[in-house]
Amino acid sequence: MKKILMLSLLICASASSLLAGSLTEIPFKTMDGKDATLNAYNGKVFMVINVASLCEHTEQYGGLEKLYKQYSPKGFVILGFPCNDFGHQEPGTNAEIKQFCRSKYNVTFPIFDKIHVKGPEQHPLYTALTGPGAKFPGDMQWNFGKFLINKNGEVVARFIPATQPDDAALVAAIDEAMK
Asked: Is residue 12 among the annotated active site residues?
């Protein structure tokens, strides 16, 4: 019985580390159509957010940019993934999204190619973040859901869309991950 328990624990630990490695290996596209992965952010703390230009949470772009400017010198990055899955709140092209983010909110953190975060066309990144094997499983509920990933590529926190960028729990989680 002890051998079975030990083997089960070993398998779970291996699967957990594989998931972290797999998360950073998942390919996606930049706004300019270039191939990218989260490997570019190895050794940094980063937050993955599904964003939209016509959402009731769109004003969070301003707070996210402030958070990014405050923490980026310490190795923190915000990664925005436009999504049109909720009420068609991101109908624009990549060029339109980029222009909107820069002109309206002066966004300088990376924004990537538009993806699906739920449904049959869900991007593999969001399958890894929300699927049954994820640390914080469960479907995306709306735009501006946030996943905090530590320097080792492990998801350490998930925040609901209404969580503001200056929320004490979110800032505390970033501070903890930065240690």
From this structure: no
